[in-house]
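User: My collaborator sent over this chain with a note saying "see what the structure looks like." That's all I know about it. Can you take a look?
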Amino acid sequence: MTFTQRNYPGKLIAVEGLDGSGKSTQLYLVKRWLELQGSRVYFTEWNSSVLVKKATSKGKKRQLLTPTSFCLIHATDFADRYERQILPLLRAGFIVLADRYVYTALARDAVRGLDKDWISKLYSFAVPPDIIFYFEVPLETSLSRILDGRPALKYHEAGLDMGWSTDPYESFRVFQGKILNEYSSMRSKYGFTTIDATREIHIQQAEVRRLIAEKIDIPSFRSS
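Assistant: Without extra context I'll predict from the sequence alone. Here is the result:
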């Protein structure tokens, strides 16, 4: 995948990992840590643009989304947030925290059978993150965290649209296993910084903060 070149003073930190890896919790803690230091920081998360929210909701509810339409809706969501939030704030000198980035699309859409080169070109306008934290956790651990106490899995969340299994839990297991394989193939290619997500939350957070401080001059991002 060929990224757009960096030409801005801000920094971009992204987190990736299986559902249940704890990545969102860790990124939230990073956000609070930076805010308490007075840093200029902004948080954005996957599939959160109001531009396509209604269309996504309706498509999922009626089970109308094909792998291609699913991919294009998420790409539209990302492009909207990228043009309105991510890139302007990077240019304004913010630290932007992204809960999932283009690698989520590369993993999930590839698992749904779409061509990887086509997906890469679709997101080629995006700039590369300065740090990509990949929260590594065994599949069984991820599944137990998600399924523990969950009354039911949603249709697309479980990958039921792919026909791997009619049982939502088995389908989810297959889906997440395939996504894990895709992430594994991307780790060295895109320079993921791997975090052992089986450890205590505070231990992970200490490592994440140390790695950020090593690569980013945090005091320079404090609001004057």
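A starting point for your reply to your collaborator: The helical segments are 23-36, 50-61, 67-91, 102-111, 116-122, 139-147, 168-190, 201-215.
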